[in-house]
Amino acid sequence: MFSPQGPSLRELAIQALSSVERGYDLLAPKFDRTPFRTPESILDATADALRPLGPFGRGLDVCCGTGAGMRVLEPLCQEPITGVDFSAGMLAQARSAHPDAEWVRADARALPFAEAFDLAVSFGALGHFLPAERPALFAGVYRALRPGGLFAFPIGAPPPITSGWYWALLGFDLAMRVRNAVWRPPFVMYYRTCPLQAVRDDLTAAGFTVTTAPLTALGRREVGSPRYRLVLARRTSP
């Protein structure tokens, strides 16, 4: 699961017992050599789905981490692109890999932008927000977009109950709930708290018009539905 250059078990344990911000500061130098980084296949499928909808002006990667999403924004946006994250360590890695992009340290629940971007993306970040925090996140992205701007992010279909992944993700979430019940500060990261319908409802409540596009390049489930969809949330024009 981890490359030899990735974090050790001890390093992962220290990270898991830290806050989210401190944990990612510690993990940042080795993050791209862990399975937590968004796979290239998901980045490529997202870029392919967005290309017919562009080109775009300014782009924003919400919870950018080490900057993997820049691979999506760079060819699609004709104006400067920006990454925002609250981990200084992750931003340092991102800045080193993409020196021409702009980087902002901020909490995604209180984004400091107003009508500045035409496209916003996010990868693998929703699990860091409790359901009660999603309205603030989505409201901030809505404010950050210009009228007609687009917020896009991939979301995976839940694995069937007969799948080993179903029980692995369930076990992870239960372990995190026990950890957060007995240890402070909390480390918020859950895999089963952002089903598509709940996310769609929260986006709609924030003012977005929401559609989805199947990312068929990432395969289909046994029932024939796509394994991943790209959520396309459009800020309506005034």
TrEMBL record:
The record's Gene3D superfamilies line, in alphabetical order, gives:
Vaccinia Virus protein VP39 (3.40.50.150)
Q: Which UniProt keywords apply?
A: Methyltransferase, Transferase
Q: Which GO terms describe its molecular function?
A: methyltransferase activity
Listed SUPFAM superfamilies: S-adenosyl-L-methionine-dependent methyltransferases (SSF53335)
Per UniProt, residues of the Methyltransferase domain are 60-149
Swiss-Prot/TrEMBL GO biological process terms: methylation
InterPro entries reported for this sequence? Methyltransf_25, SAM-dependent_MTases_sf
Name used for this protein in its record: Class I SAM-dependent methyltransferase
Q: Does the keyword S-adenosyl-L-methionine apply?
A: no
Asked if tRNA-binding is a keyword of the record, the answer is: no
Q: CDD domains, per this entry?
A: AdoMet_MTases
